[in-house]
């Protein structure tokens, strides 16, 4: 009976305190005056009993928030932990509490305080994943009217989602298909204003979802390509002086490559490159030319026949421009490797297009064969250039082989780590150079005939890619280097790949 009496007394006291709080002119002082222990007790009791006083719910929220910002760490931590109780029996408060916790992520300074916010958010995510994610992503998506006001909160919420939510996707995203679709839609809304690093992070996460997994239908894979196309600004008129757009375009093309392999269409990228980029190729920054050609080479295997026919004239024009006619002229061997590879893969899908472009005689029975026209001058010019490149590649191959012998001797004689590192870089460049020249020679050989054969498979392993171990004995020349994307050529070039992408939009959020 004593216990029942005590409970009754507590409830009576609480009603009395509630009436006092309702009548108080300065309600903010009601729970803030007193010692740290008093405040901690208040932070514990307000959320525990607030449901019994529906008319004072707003005051209770305000009071708890006041305690969440108290100068004493212990009071703040207790108040943060108490926030969970506001939606334990009243789930309609959940979005409001998640919103408050999102703001507290930005304010939390001490580790114990930050951990309290993290734990509270994880509890609410498990209670209602859809509502909680929707509220959190509100900060990631941002408010276009007040971009700077929530920037600090956005960064902290984004880090929380990346570090705490994404790794637990299998546990949290249930029902799986429904919630994977929901978070995909939220991410799409978040991509209007992101840095390159953020975009890569989001795309890596989307790729990890079963929704877009290995067995996903082509239309879902295409959905990811369309997201990348949006970042590449393929609807924007190209300006060759816009270095940011060039970097972004090349990096997005690189990011889309795995999805082309899975069956997604490369048409929009290819058509944009053909219409806007290749006509001004010579005006591109020198370090980006090779990046573009490398990515286009890797993409060429997956260009459909109709797009191949449209793109091939631009590639032949570039190829002729860079295949020098005199052996004394300077030549970029990496350019030639890329362009020959692209040429082979496009021509393999539309062989009769080479009749007018290169003077070949390939009969398909279609009017586009144009066999009745004389393109002998085109054939003479093209084959002369091929012979010159053949001779230059063989000469360079000999020079590089001799150079590697000298580098091996120098390595044996090197005494310091600095000397050894310099020689290692030289050997790496020579190795890639040997692979480049071998590839050029292998691709030129079948083009000498008037009715050539075009390589349309993966027999040629591009010099900057890791060599694929064959299932049967292979006569492939020099072994490759894993992860090496810096091509060998007459002049140094920049690296391509996702490294460039991280920097292309670091300052875009300021625009």
Automatic annotation (TrEMBL):
Record InterPro entries: API5, ARM-type_fold
Gene Ontology MF term list: mRNA binding
GO biological process: regulation of programmed cell death
UniProt region (Disordered), positions on chain: 473-511
GO CC terms: nucleus
Pfam families: API5 (PF05918)
PANTHER family: APOPTOSIS INHIBITOR 5-LIKE, APOPTOSIS INHIBITOR 5-RELATED
UniProt name for this protein: Apoptosis inhibitor 5
Organism (species): Rhododendron griersonianum
Phylogenetic classification of the source organism: Eukaryota, Viridiplantae, Streptophyta, Embryophyta, Tracheophyta
């Amino acid at each position: 009976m004593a216990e029942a009496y005590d409970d009754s007394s507590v409830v009576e006291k609480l009603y009395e305190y509630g009436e006092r709080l309702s009548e108080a002119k300065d309600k903010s002082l009601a729970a803030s005056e007193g010692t740290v222990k008093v405040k901690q007790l208040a932070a514990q009791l307000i959320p525990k009993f607030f449901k019994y006083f529906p008319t004072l719910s707003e005051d209770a929220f305000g009071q708890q928030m006041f305690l969440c910002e108290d100068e004493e760490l212990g009071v703040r931590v207790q108040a943060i932990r108490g926030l969970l109780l506001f939606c334990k029996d009243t789930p309609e408060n959940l979005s409001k509490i998640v919103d408050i916790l999102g703001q507290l992520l930005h304010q939390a300074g001490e580790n114990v305080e930050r951990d309290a916010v993290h734990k509270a958010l994880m509890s609410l995510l498990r209670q209602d994943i859809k509502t909680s994610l929707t509220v959190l992503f509100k900060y990631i998506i941002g408010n276009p009217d007040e971009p700077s006001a929530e920037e600090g909160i956005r960064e902290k919420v984004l880090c929380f989602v990346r570090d705490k939510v994404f790794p637990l996707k299998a546990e949290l995203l249930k029902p799986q298909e429904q919630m994977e679709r929901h978070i995909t839609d939220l991410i799409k809304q978040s991509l209007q204003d992101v840095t390159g690093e953020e975009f890569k992070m989001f795309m890596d996460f989307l790729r990890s979802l079963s929704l877009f997994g290995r067995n996903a239908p082509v239309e879902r894979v295409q959905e990811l390509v369309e997201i990348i196309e949006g970042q590449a600004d393929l609807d924007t008129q190209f300006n060759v002086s816009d270095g940011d757009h060039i970097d972004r375009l090349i990096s997005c093309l690189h990011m889309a490559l795995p999805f082309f392999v899975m069956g997604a269409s490369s048409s929009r990228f290819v058509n944009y490159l053909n219409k806007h980029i290749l006509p001004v190729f010579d005006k591109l920054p020198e370090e980006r030319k090779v990046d573009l050609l490398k990515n286009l080479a890797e993409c060429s295997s997956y260009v459909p026949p109709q797009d191949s026919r449209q793109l091939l004239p631009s590639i032949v024009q570039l190829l002729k421009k860079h295949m020098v006619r005199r052996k004394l002229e300077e030549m970029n061997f990496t350019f030639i490797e890329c362009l020959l590879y692209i040429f082979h893969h496009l021509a393999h899908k539309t062989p009769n297009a080479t009749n007018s472009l290169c003077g070949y005689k390939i009969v398909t029975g279609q009017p586009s064969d144009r066999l009745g026209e004389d393109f002998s001058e085109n054939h003479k010019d093209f084959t002369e250039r091929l012979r010159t490149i053949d001779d230059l590649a063989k000469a360079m191959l000999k020079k590089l082989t001799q150079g590697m012998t000298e580098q091996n001797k120098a390595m044996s004689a090197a005494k310091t780590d600095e000397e050894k590192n310099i020689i290692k870089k030289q050997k790496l460049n020579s190795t890639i150079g040997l692979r480049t020249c071998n590839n050029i020679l292998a691709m030129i050989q079948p083009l000498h005939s008037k009715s050539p054969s075009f390589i349309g498979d993966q027999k040629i392993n591009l010099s900057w890619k890791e060599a694929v171990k064959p299932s049967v004995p292979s006569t492939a020349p020099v072994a490759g280097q894993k992860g090496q994307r810096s091509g060998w050529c007459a002049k140094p070039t920049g690296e391509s790949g996702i490294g460039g992408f991280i920097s292309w939009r670091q300052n875009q959020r300021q625009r």
